[in-house]
Amino acid sequence: MTTLNPNMERNLVTAANDAAGETQAKPYVNPYFAAILLGIVLFLAFFITGSGLGASGGLNRILVVAEDLIAPGHVDNVPYLIDMAGGDRNPLDNWIVFLTLGTVIGGFVSGWRNKRIKVETVKGPRITRETRWLMAFIGGTLMGYGARLARGCTSGQALSGGAVLSVGSWAFMFAVFGGAYALAYFVRRLWY
Questions:
Q1: pTM, whole model, 2 decimals?
Q2: In this predicted model, what pLDDT tens digit does every residue of 22-48 receive, in sequence order?
Q3: Per-residue b/e over 68-98, b at no fewer than 16 CB within 10 Å?
């Protein structure tokens, strides 16, 4: 009686999938190595541009473009929005917009090169796809609102601010983790 080595079995499945035209996604990079690369990118961002990394600021400016098209008078009267789009100012004329676009393009290229691009909804077994999308929309809206209140998201506040030992950024991180643990009990059924 012969037994099949697990590695041989995996190779046979891979070969069969390749023969059938299916592609295998490449494994993710080691998380510790990725963290080192992220630290180098963050350092270079501070060194070259004088600013850290961020994401919600770029998305916010893209939303302000739409807001300025719909209600320019409102934008010209709200102090928070005047700095971005008041008068003749173009809200897209800012480094963080290009960083955001570069992040999206870089993520797409990485997914394409590593064969991870596909349309799917990641969800727990107890909820429908529609519920998952609704909860993602609600969560994303709350996250975006909270990021504006905190003047940054996890990348701008926690990553960039934490790297320069900003007290407010560390308070933000503890608030994020504390809030997540406090709410996890109530939303756990969405995943299990």
A1: 0.71
A2: 568 889 999 999 999 999 999 999 998
A3: beeeeeebeeeeebeebbbeebebbeeebbe
